[in-house]
Design goal:
The structure is a single chain. The chain is mainly beta. The protein has one domain (about 5-20, about 30-165). Helix content is about 10%, strand content about 45%. The chain has 2 helices and 9 strands, in the order αββββββββαβ. Strands 2-3-4-5-6-7-8-9 form an 8-stranded antiparallel beta barrel. The longest helix is centred in the first third of the chain and has 15 residues, at about 5-20. The chain is globular, with a radius of gyration of 14 Å. The two termini are about 25 Å apart. Residues about 5-35 have low confidence and may be disordered.
Length: about 170
């Protein structure tokens, strides 16, 4: 099964070797300094990643001036924990992102940028952008704006089998 996790890690290695960065796509964003709306958001979803039962749990808050919290993805016995700091929406996709706090999943490295990307629909789909070096952007919002959501192939996402994730206020596609 193709998944955004493995494909994006590979794509990032190719992009890094080529010396270029992903092109920016029009996206509504909620940087840490200007989150619109207030309140807790997130939830938990279960999906299969390469046939392995996996779960992503987002526990975060956007209070009108900041966005913070965590996104923890469990794949098999591995865990990938991200300290969230920004969010963006483009078309039928929205994402929360930040710096990886710790990771023991393939390709994950503490200190790198990481994102949970949700594709709305029936069923909803999820993709985990595991790792992008911190040198690719000066801050979370700049990094997330650099992802061209329009080029992310639907086949890179895994169907959500159960649960739900809610977007921060102001980002509902």
């Amino acid at each position: 099964m193709r998944s955004i996790l493995g494909v994006l890690v590979s794509a990032l290695l190719v992009v890094g070797c080529a010396g270029s960065t992903p092109s920016a796509a029009p996206a509504a964003s909620v940087p840490a300094a200007s989150a619109s709306g207030a309140g807790a958001f997130g939830g938990a979803v279960q999906f299969k990643y390469d046939g392995q039962p996996s779960t992503t749990t987002v526990d975060a808050v956007a209070d009108g001036t900041s966005l913070s919290g965590t996104a923890v993805t469990q794949i098999g016995k591995g865990h990938h924990t991200v300290q969230l700091g920004c969010a963006a929406q483009s078309g039928d996709m929205w994402a929360v992102a930040g710096k990886t706090e710790k990771s023991d999943v393939e390709g994950g490295r503490a200190g790198d940028w990481s994102a949970v990307i949700v594709k709305t629909g029936s069923p909803a789909k999820i993709g985990i952008w595991v790792s992008d070096p911190p040198s690719t952007a000066s801050d979370c919002s700049a990094w997330l704006k650099g992802i061209d959501f329009g080029t992310l192939d639907d086949g890179l996402f895994d169907a959500v089998e159960s649960g739900a994730l809610t977007a921060p206020a102001g980002l509902v596609p």
